[in-house]
Amino acid sequence: MKKDFGDSISNKVYEYRVLARMSQQELAEKVGVSKQTIFVMEKGNYVPTLLLAFRIADFFEVEVNDIFTYLKGTDLNER
């Protein structure tokens, strides 16, 4: 049985994008994904691949941890 630890990733993609005065479409084109991917990521409904997280951080010239934060959960199977 696969364990669900309840971990998640929060992000500041929206904040960085707005500060850069970019549309979702513009950012999507710069990092090689669809506008929909940026939209769902900003809403917290999509955890990007490690590669995409690095592309976004590189684009904004910051560290990955400046945009993405790991939120450690607990093992839900032990509750």
Automatic annotation (TrEMBL):
- Please report the stretch or stretches of sequence annotated as the HTH cro/C1-type domain: 13-67
KW DNA-binding (keyword) present: yes
Pfam families (alphabetical):
HTH_3
Q: Which GO terms describe its molecular function?
A: DNA binding
Q: Which InterPro entries match?
A: Cro/C1-type_HTH, Lambda_DNA-bd_dom_sf
| Keyword match DNA-binding | yes
Family annotation (SMART domains) = HTH_XRE (SM00530)
Q: Which UniProt keywords apply?
A: DNA-binding
Q: Extract the PANTHER family matched here.
A: DNA-BIDING PHAGE PROTEIN, TRACRIPTIONAL REGULATORY PROTEIN-RELATED-RELATED
What protein name is recorded for this chain?
Helix-turn-helix transcriptional regulator
